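Dig into what follows:

_____
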Amino acid sequence: MPLLRTALYAQGVDLWCAPTVDDRDAWQATMRHIALEGRCFVLAAAQHLRRDALPADLHPVQGEAPDTVLIGGGSVIVSPLGEVLAGPLRDGEGVLAAELDLDDLARARFDFDATGHYARPDVFTLGVDRSARVGVSGR
């Protein structure tokens, strides 16, 4: 959702939280890209799931062996300059931890600000309607 990201970058997001079940290497690249693009820390929580965590009446396409990995994890913490600070965590459940230097935010944004003068507001604009709306109506 690139336009959503742009709207959040414009609001000064410092910490991007990205829960997912996507365990592909491409997701790791996406998390690093978001950190670099938004000059924010990224905390990506990826699920890890084995067959033995599911009820017996479910039959995953990956196989029936109890130790079959269905979702491979990949949680990661990334700095505002795209450096991996912790992870990716694979091969089981766990907790990632990293010390975040909040001064890295200002240093990274000095280098690039996606919604600042690099965004060319003289040429491009993004309008976001932030008014409250009803998601479901009984009409």
